[in-house]
Amino acid sequence: GGVGSAIVQRSDLTPAFISAAMTVALMVGTGCYAVLVICAFPFQAFFSMPGLGVVVLVLGLSSLVSGTCSVLEGLLQRNMGFGSLFRVNLVTSTAGYAVPAIGLALAGAGVWSLVAAALGRVTVKFLMLARLAPMSIRPRWEPSAIRDLARFGFGLTQDRFWLWLSAQAAPFLVGRYFGQAQLGQFYLGSQLAVLPAQYISSVVSAVYFP
Q1: How far is Cα of residue 62 from the mean position of the Cα atoms in its chain?
Q2: How far apart are CA 101 and CA 104, in angstroms?
Q3: Crossing angle of helices 111-132 and 52-59, rounded to 10°
Q4: CB under 8 Å, gap of 24 or more: what pairs does 48-52 form?
C-alpha cells in the first residue's frame, strides 16, 4: 500500500498520520490474505502440486505482519537509522530464517522447514522493529490521513503490482508446463543471479534517495 514510502517522504509527519499508516497497513495485509484464501487451492490445481494450497495459506500469514513492518522500517529510514536496519536484517536472515530452515530441513521437515523459517523471519523482524520504534504506535482511524495515504499508495501500488506480475509470469509458466523440479531450478537460479543485485540497488537507493 505504499505506507512505508509515505512515512519516509511526508514533510509533516505526525503521530496521527503514523497511526493511520499502521491502520492502512493492517487493512492491506488482511485484504491480501483474504485474496490468498480464495486463490490458494486454485493455485494448487493450476500447478498440479498436491499440498500447495495449505503451504500458501500458512505462508500468507506473513502478510498480516509485513505491512506493519514497512511502517516501522519507514520510520527508521526517515531517521537515517540504516545501521539499525542492517542489524535487524542480519539477525532476521540468520537467527530468524537460516538457522530454523537448516535445522528443520536436517530434521526431515521438507518444505515446512522453509515455511516455518519464512514466518520466523517476519516475526523476528516485527519484534525487533517494534523495539526500535521511537514511539508507541497503535492503529487509529484518521479519515484525512487515510485519504492521503490512499491517494499516495494507489499509484505506487499499481506500479509495484505490474512489476511483480511481469516478474512472476515466467515462474508461473515454468511451474505450470514443466513441473516442480524445473520450477525449483528456475527459482534457485533467479535467487542466485538476480536477487543480490536487486537488494544492493534497493539499499543504495534507500540511502542516497530516501
Answers
A1: 7
A2: 5
A3: 10
A4: 49/175, 49/180, 51/111
Rounded Cα–Cα distance for residues 87 and 184 (Å): 30
User: Per-residue confidence of the chain (210 residues) as pLDDT tens digits?
Assistant: 677 777 777 777 788 878 888 888 888 889 889 999 999 999 899 888 889 999 999 999 988 888 888 888 888 888 887 888 888 888 888 888 888 899 999 999 988 999 999 999 999 999 998 888 766 677 778 777 777 777 766 666 777 777 777 777 778 888 888 887 888 888 788 777 776 676 677 666 656 665
CB-based contact 71:21 (threshold 8 Å): yes
Instruction: Show the cell assigned to 199.
Output: 537488494
62 DSSP assignment? G
